[in-house]
Predict the 3D structure of the following.
Amino acid sequence: MTETVGQSGHTIVLAQQTHDGATPTFAGTETAGSHGAGHDPAFPPFDAGTFPGQLLWLAIFFGLLLWLMKSVALPRVSNILEGRADRIASDLAEANRLKNETDAAIESYEKALAAARAEAGRIAGEMHERIARDAEEKRQQLEAELNAKLADADRQIAESKTSALSNVRGIAVEAGAAIVERLTGKAPAQPEIEQAVDASLAA
C-alpha cells in the first residue's frame, strides 16, 4: 500500500492490495481518518529533509546537461561556426580570384589597346609615306611628260619658224628681183638678190 499526504491533510491511497484477494483500492481514495488532521506539511522543495536528495538530483541533471552540451550542442555549434568560417574563407578566396582575373583582364585590355594604337600609328605612317611617294612619282611623271611636250612644242615651233623663214626668204627674193627689174628694167643676178635678202633677215 502506498500513501501520500494531499492538500488539507487528507491521506490519498495510491494502491492497496489485501492479502485475502479483495479488490484493491486505487488513487483517489481518501481515508476518512485523515480528515481533520493536524497542520499542513511543508512544500517538498522547501523541506529541509529533502535537500540532500534534491542536491543529488541537481548534480545528476547538471552533469547530464553538461554532457549533452559537450557531446551534442557544442559540436553542432562548432561545426556550424567552422562551416561558416570555411564558407567565408571560400568566398574571400573566390573574390580574390575574381579580382585577380579582373585585374589581369584590364591589364591585357590596356596592352591590346596600346598595341592597337601603335599598329594604327605605324599603318598611318606607312600610308602617308606611300601616298607621298606615289604623289612624288606622279609629279615627276607629269613633269617628264610636260617637259617632253614642251620640247616637242619647241621643236615644232622651231620647225615652223624655219619653214616660215624659208618661205619668207623665197618670197622676199622673188619680190626683190621683181622690184629691181621693174625699177631698172633689168633682172638682177640671183646671188645678189639672195645675199641682200639674207642681210635684211639677219638684221
User: Anything to note?
Assistant: Residues 155 and 161 are 10 Å apart (CA to CA).
